[in-house]
Design a protein that fits this description.
Chain lengths: ~280, ~450
């Protein structure tokens, strides 16, 4: 096996924030505002053979929507999975550097607690093959909530919050798999909301859906950001422009540019961002 | 209700499949004798080539059809033979009666004989064969080995047959499941003869009785030859074998499918499982005899084979299949489901029990059904690891024969009892057929995940 310690960490203690134009901004100065902060994060797959994230420095603001964009294979999903430590499940994956959640090193937070606070919605809708009700109760039940009334309230509230209530309220005991793709994805969002998390990570949540279902989810996201911090990976730049407050652009495992969304699309600072936005590659 | 429909449908599909296969083969067969229209316009070389190819293809086609038909014919012949030979033996009584015969020797008490009185008895039943002199109604019957026997179906009030006593002089009642083995009778009171139930028909026996004036004794017997003990033993064996093998097998499958890292040890275990599933059962029987019998006996103080040694041996034999089928069904569960569960803050154990196991249920059920089929059909291993003595009932402490071993035993010896063996075979065949239909039904459910990620 290959030794890959100290490759990056000791060389560069100082934060390289050339890509991150926001670190000096007022909102980012106050630690209270910050949900996640990454400093000098490197990630290796296959026992160090594949260097997939390179020296990432980024802060995620609370109650804002942050979009990750970039060409396929640039590491967007990988970084997203760092935030709820889903990368721990992958054999041979190693993360170095500091990732803090609410000011606390995420490696020191119990994964189960972390994942109740940081929910995740996947690219493919993946409801459990059980009833709609049980899909939503799954998370709370795993946390030991057994009271029926409490659970019923959670189900109702989560379905309302995910704009699914009107469509399924009369068939809560039907299988989650009997819903349409867009409904399934909103069920997955409802399932995540049921945990009352602080952060929702979404990995291309609309890529498997048609435009109308996509629109519904986008509206939902705009609604959700009042309560939750949202990080969304998307391939659709219009989508990023429509729904996000901040946009991070990645390429080949590097964070190329991170800026307010309007500013990013109007005046990209990096040549590569500009090329990508204008569709010259990617 | 929907399940019933599904069963019906899948059965129908199976037969439609078979039918279509035949139709296709038959079409090929017919096509062989047809000549293409373009044949006339061919030159001689092409014609020769055409004919040669046609003969070759046709030969192969005919060959496959013939082999196919032959196989099917053999199978059908076997099943038909088993059903025709065994069906008349397969009665409720055969299933519920003891294997050993119970014998009841009857004495006439102080006087040493019954004497027929002058009065005649009135037939109060609608039995056709009735001895007016003795007041008994007789009937023909067959025992479980298809021999003719004679039953005493009714005894009138006041008939001397009510006064039989046993060896100790106590009054006895002849219950319905006893047939008349023999009656000792005499015409004059001096020379007595035996009326043998297996040699005489009921009518003949009745005639003999009418001519006899004295009865000196009798012997009644139960039919015996029943399979109650073996059936119960088989059920018990199934229960214990599954009890030992399912938790172990499912546990191992969960370990391999969920927790184990793909290292050399896991690979080793998988290879071992693959290899053991091919070991002939007689070797498991050997292992049972030399390992489990001493082991269990040293703990329990029993002697020889018993249910525990048998079911441990079966469990060992079933484990590879259970582990493999369960692991396969764990592997087809989409990774996205377990990820979703973990991302919702469920622990690994919670994920295993709430997501993995319920969704692996079809696989677990399939392996259970396959296992039951194997337990019912196993004989070689059990002869050594459990026992080959046919019992009248099942018992934890002694190793009686299971159904398959029962067949093995009654077919051995000097007078193989084919009818009884076929009757048991019918039971086994039907159980196995039902099991495989269920497996087919479950695999339809299992397919739900195939193709998903
Ligand atoms: N489990 C893994 N094992 C090894 N390499 C991986 C693994 N997952 C991702 N990678 C590699 O890491 C790099 C980044 O992958 P990632 O999935 O984060 O890309 P992405 O930006 O999400 O792309 P996409 O837009 O196509 O989803 C890719 O080169 C990929 O091959
Ligand atoms: Mg991705």
């Amino acid at each position: 096996m290959i030794e890959f310690e100290n490759e990056q960490t000791n060389v560069e203690q100082k934060v390289d924030n050339s890509a991150n134009t926001l670190l000096d901004k007022e909102e980012f100065k106050n630690p209270e505002n910050i949900a996640f902060s990454c400093r000098n994060v490197d990630l290796y797959y296959d026992y160090g053979e594949k260097h997939s994230l390179k020296n990432i420095n980024i802060d995620i603001l609370k109650n804002k929507v942050t979009a990750f964009i970039g060409p396929s294979g640039c590491g967007k999903s990988t970084l997203l999975r760092c935030f709820d430590r889903m990368n721990d499940l992958i054999d041979g994956c190693k993360v170095t550097g500091d990732i803090k959640y609410m000011g606390q090193d995420i490696n020191e937070i119990n994964t189960i607690y972390l994942r109740t606070k940081v929910g995740m919605v996947f690219q493919q809708p993946n409801p459990f093959p059980m009833s709609i009700r049980n899909n939503i109760c799954y998370g709370p039940r795993c946390q030991g909530i057994k009271n029926k009334d409490t659970l019923n309230k959670i189900v109702e509230q989560s379905l309302k919050d995910s704009a699914l209530y009107d469509e399924v309220s009369d068939r809560l005991d039907a299988s989650g798999l009997s819903l349409s793709g867009g409904q399934q994805q909103r069920l997955c969002i409802a399932r995540t909301i049921a945990m009352s998390p602080d952060v929702i990570l979404m990995d291309e949540p609309t890529s498997a859906l048609d435009p109308i279902a996509t629109l519904k989810i986008e509206e939902l996201i705009k609604e959700l950001k009042k309560k939750y911090t949202i990080i969304i990976v998307t391939h659709n730049m219009q989508q990023a422009a429509r729904i996000s407050d901040y946009t991070a652009f990645f390429m080949l495992g590097e964070l190329v540019e991170f800026n307010e969304t309007e500013e990013f699309f109007a005046h990209p600072r990096d040549k590569r961002s500009e090329d990508y936005i204008t569709g010259r590659f990617g | 209700m929907t399940n019933l429909k599904k069963i019906v449908n899948s059965t129908k599909e199976t037969f439609v499949d078979i039918g279509l296969g035949f139709k296709k083969s038959f079409k090929n067969f017919i096509n062989f004798f047809k000549v293409d229209k373009s044949f006339k316009s061919m030159n001689s070389k092409q014609k020769r080539h055409y004919i040669a190819r046609k003969l070759k293809d046709g030969g192969i086609n005919v060959g496959t059809v013939c082999f196919g038909l032959f196989t099917v014919a053999m199978l059908i012949w076997m099943v038909v033979y088993i059903f025709t030979t065994g069906s008349s033996t397969l009665t409720w009584e055969f299933i519920t009666s003891d294997y050993t015969k119970e014998s009841l020797t009857l004495y006439t008490g102080e006087k040493n004989y019954f004497e027929a009185g002058d009065l005649t008895f009135e037939n109060t039943t609608n039995a056709e064969i009735f001895s007016e002199k003795w007041g008994v109604a007789l009937e023909n019957g067959v025992d479980n080995m298809q021999n003719n026997i004679v039953y005493v179906v009714h005894i009138e009030d006041g008939s001397p047959f009510n006064d039989f006593v046993n060896k100790d002089g106590e009054a006895v009642e002849i219950s319905d499941n006893f047939y008349c083995n023999y009656l000792s009778v005499s015409k004059t009171g001096a020379d007595f003869s035996q009326l043998n139930g297996s040699e005489l028909t009921a009518e003949e026996m009745c005639q003999e009785l009418e001519q006899s004036n004295y009865i000196l004794g009798a012997n009644f017997m139960t039919k015996g030859e029943g399979i109650k003990g073996s059936l119960l033993t088989t059920l018990m064996l199934i229960g214990f074998s599954l009890l030992f093998s399912l938790p172990l097998g499912i546990g191992a499958a969960i370990y391999l499918g969920v927790y184990a890292k793909n290292g050399p040890i896991t690979k080793g275990i998988r290879t071992l499982i693959d290899v053991t599933s091919g070991i002939p059962s007689i070797i498991f029987g050997l292992a049972g005899a030399v390992i489990f019998i001493p082991f269990v006996n040293s703990i329990s103080g029993l002697t020889g084979g018993n249910i525990f040694t048998g079911s441990l041996t079966m469990a060992l034999m079933l484990l590879p299949t259970i582990v493999k089928t369960t692991e396969e069904s764990i592997n087809v569960i989409p990774k996205s489901l377990t990820q979703a569960s973990l991302a919702l803050g469920a622990s690994r154990t919670q994920t295993t029990f709430k997501v993995v196991l319920p969704n692996a249920m079809p696989g677990i059920l399939t392996s259970t059904l396959l296992s039951i089929g194997r337990i019912i059909g196993e004989s070689a291993a059990l002869v050594f690891a459990m026992g080959s003595m046919i019992g009248n009932t099942a018992s934890l402490s002694s190793g009686y024969a299971s159904l398959a071993v029962h067949i093995y035993v009654i077919l051995g010896g000097e007078a193989p009892r084919y009818a009884a063996a076929c009757a048991i075979a019918i039971i086994i065949l039907i159980v196995v057929l039902v099991l495989s239909l269920l497996v087919k039904l479950i695999s339809l459910r299992l397919n739900r995940f195939k193709g998903a990620q």
